[in-house]
Write a structure and sequence with these properties.
By secondary structure, this protein is mainly α. It has helices at about 5-15, 20-30, 50-90. It is built from 3 helices and no strands.
């Protein structure tokens, strides 16, 4: 049992699949995120849906923007704090 065929054979019983070729095709299709033969898998991929991926991208962009804003505010606060210290010393 080596490679994809060995893996297919080892789980074939638990998935109630029949035949080497059928098992191999279904598992390969599932691993590539395609709809599998005979409706197996029904075209669903593991992971996020396209809506969730879009939302994640939006949140990542927003997060980056907030990090940049925080960096600007941090530098501005340091600048004005230093200016206040300089003013007090004069």
């Amino acid at each position: 049992m080596n490679g994809l065929f060995g893996w297919c054979s080892s789980i074939k019983g638990s998935m109630s699949l029949s035949g080497r070729r059928s098992s191999r095709l279904r598992l390969r299709s599932a691993a590539q995120g395609r709809p599998c033969v005979n409706g197996f898998g029904q075209g669903k991929r593991a992971g996020l849906t396209s809506t969730e991926r879009e939302r994640l991208k939006q949140l990542e962009r927003e997060n980056l923007e907030l990090k940049r804003a925080n960096e600007i505010l941090r530098k501005a606060a340091a600048f004005f704090a230093q200016a206040e210290l300089d003013r007090r010393l004069k």
